[in-house]
């Protein structure tokens, strides 16, 4: 860390006095970090302000750390549910990605800890809400707005691909917006729980027959969009989840690679411009059939205007994986005609396509309202799952605890991730 600091100061060309101040602040932070590493963090260190997300395996709350006053998003996951639904591998992978990904494009995790009942992830709070909520507020986005969000998401997806991860669950719920309206990728949509290999087992038993969803097929695009938006929130809460954004090869047992994330991005791009995703149906089973028969079902409604270059990019994303754009690297995507004029180097410093109104650092106006729950009350949690049921399996959660060095700032100071351009 000291080496990194010296390197940064050299690059910035700081004067000796400024370097001295920086080194002193760094030394103080190191001392504080070592003290924190020895301190056992727990629920009692945070004050819960509001529930901002709920899903199948737990919930997300806006919390304030009592000693510094900083606000965070606290993800609470019930251990009993994790074990029952075989989610342990996924929560472990999620924690590992968050620890490794030190990128402006990925939601930062500052701490993780556990108690007898729950696992806790303390993450940066992004007051802009998520892309799902933004798309539900607007009928469609303009091509200019779509270009901005898709370009930022290309960089976000590429940043995790560079770490060797495949996301496999790219969807609007997992694209969060910071206070300036810029995209950050999360592996944990604020509404859904974690994925079990995409719940693909649920769909594998279905045959690949053509969809029989004629009610949806005969609707015009306006009615389709209305129906989709009406059902959308329910889908976000379901443990099975929606297959709308999942690449067909992920459902096949023949294997897939990181290109599956680019298919998902194509589906999101279609939804931004058309008002609903291309394979939406009355039921997830019908959607699955449409995805598997995408050559027949991926069509564009004639009444919705869309440019040829936008349509072309969608079709380059949503095609057989071996022909998919991005197969030869991210530069192939960045040089596509649709992105003409994008300043890839500075996109995050530029104003976002849609500005976000934030009144304070704990503003939750871009989130849904959720009633209070009793997830933190042991009496309720243990009545259904006696502690002994899973106490013997507690070893699977060993080494879950984590503290991030960058999470430390003096009381009352604004954490760097909340400052402009971060």
Automatic annotation (TrEMBL):
A GO term, aspect molecular function: protein serine/threonine kinase activity
Binding site for ATP: 75
GO cellular component: cytoplasm
Pfam families linked to this entry: Pkinase (PF00069), Pkinase_C (PF00433)
E.C. number: 2.7.11.1
Reaction catalysis annotation: L-threonyl-[protein] + ATP = O-phospho-L-threonyl-[protein] + ADP + H(+); L-seryl-[protein] + ATP = O-phospho-L-seryl-[protein] + ADP + H(+)
Residue ranges of every copy of the AGC-kinase C-terminal domain listed in the record: 340-412
Subcellular localization, as worded in the UniProt entry: Cytoplasm
InterPro entries, per the entry: AGC-kinase_C (IPR000961), Kinase-like_dom_sf (IPR011009), Pkinase_C (IPR017892), Prot_kinase_dom (IPR000719), Protein_kinase_ATP_BS (IPR017441), Rho-assoc_Ser/Thr_Kinase (IPR050839), Ser/Thr_kinase_AS (IPR008271)
Region (Disordered): 1-21
Classification via CDD domains: STKc_NDR1
Residues covered by the Protein kinase domain: 46-339
Needed cofactors: Mg(2+)
Keywords: Acetylation, ATP-binding, Cytoplasm, Kinase, Magnesium, Metal-binding, Nucleotide-binding, Phosphoprotein, Serine/threonine-protein kinase, Transferase
Family note: Belongs to the protein kinase superfamily. AGC Ser/Thr protein kinase family.
Cross-referenced PANTHER family: CHROMOSOME UNDETERMINED SCAFFOLD_135, WHOLE GENOME SHOTGUN SEQUENCE, MYOTONIC DYSTROPHY S/T KINASE-RELATED
Protein known as: non-specific serine/threonine protein kinase
């Amino acid at each position: 860390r000291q080496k990194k600091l010296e390197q940064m100061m050299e690059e910035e060309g700081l004067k000796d006095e400024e370097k001295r101040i920086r080194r002193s602040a760094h030394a103080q932070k190191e001392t504080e970090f070592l003290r924190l590493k020895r301190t056992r963090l727990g629920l009692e260190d945070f004050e819960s302000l509001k529930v901002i997300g709920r899903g199948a395996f737990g919930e997300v709350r806006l919390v304030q750390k009592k000693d510094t006053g900083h606000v965070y998003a606290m993800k609470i996951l019930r251990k009993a549910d994790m074990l029952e639904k075989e989610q342990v591998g996924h929560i472990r992978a999620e924690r590992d990605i968050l620890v490794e990904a030190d990128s402006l494009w990925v939601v930062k995790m500052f701490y993780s800890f556990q108690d007898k009942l729950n696992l806790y992830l303390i993450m940066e709070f992004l007051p802009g809400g998520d892309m799902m909520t933004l798309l539900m507020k607007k009928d469609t986005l303009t091509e200019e707005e779509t270009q901005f969000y898709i370009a930022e998401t290309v960089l976000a997806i590429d940043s995790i691909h560079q770490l060797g991860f495949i996301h496999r669950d790219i969807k609007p719920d997992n694209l969060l917006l910071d206070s300036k309206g810029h995209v950050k990728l999360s592996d944990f949509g604020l509404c859904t729980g974690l994925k079990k290999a995409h719940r693909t087992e649920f769909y594998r038993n279905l045959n690949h027959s053509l969809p029989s969803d004629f009610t949806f097929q005969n609707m015009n695009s306006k009615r389709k969009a209305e129906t989709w938006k009406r059902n959308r929130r329910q889908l976000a809460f379901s443990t099975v989840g929606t297959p709308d954004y999942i690449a067909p090869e992920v459902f096949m047992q023949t294997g897939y690679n990181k290109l599956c994330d680019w298919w998902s991005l194509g589906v999101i791009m279609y939804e931004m411009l058309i008002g609903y995703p291309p394979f939406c149906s009355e039921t997830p089973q019908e959607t699955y059939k449409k995805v598997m028969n995408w050559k027949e079902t991926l069509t564009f409604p004639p009444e919705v205007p869309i440019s040829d270059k936008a349509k072309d990019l969608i079709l380059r994303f949503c095609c057989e994986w071996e022909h998919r754009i991005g197969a030869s690297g991210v530069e192939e995507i960045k040089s596509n005609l649709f992105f003409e004029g994008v300043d890839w180097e500075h996109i995050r410093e530029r104003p976002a396509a849609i500005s976000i109104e934030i009144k304070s650092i704990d503003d939750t106006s871009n989130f849904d309202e959720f009633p209070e729950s009793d997830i933190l009350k042991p009496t309720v949690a243990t009545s259904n799952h006696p502690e002994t049921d899973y106490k013997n399996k507690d070893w699977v959660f060993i080494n879950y605890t984590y503290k991030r060095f960058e999470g430390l700032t003096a009381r009352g100071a604004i954490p760097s991730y909340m400052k402009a351009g971060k």
